[in-house]
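SEQUENCE AND FOLD
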Amino acid sequence: MTKRSESADSLIATILKAIDEIKGVDVQLLDLREIENTVCDYFIICSGTSNTHVNAISGIIQKQVGKLAKEKPWHVEGEGNAEWVLLDYINVVVHIFQKQTREFYNIESLWGDAKITSISS
């Protein structure tokens, strides 16, 4: 169990560093471990300023996680229109939004029971 936690912590650190490098906006980490019947342990949510920026954030996360953590996402969704890109690393799911799409879906309020940590750059 400890190995899984260390692995998740390392993956989260790598993802957050990648987001910071490409200037992702309004980054939040949602800890879902205390909530029953969740699909993963953590959500990382951030915004990009355009579809190009959203795709750049997605690209650098995949590149850095592949290089440093030797992991590929199990599933990637939304890169075509880049309004909301989802990267599924099983225990950690990354949501990269354009601002208006993030406001519309308001995932943070849907998971209001989660422990939410804002990540400042």
Notes: Strands lie at 25-31, 42-48, 75-77, 84-88, 92-98, 115-119. The CA atoms of residues 28 and 118 lie 4 Å apart. The radius of gyration is 13 Å.
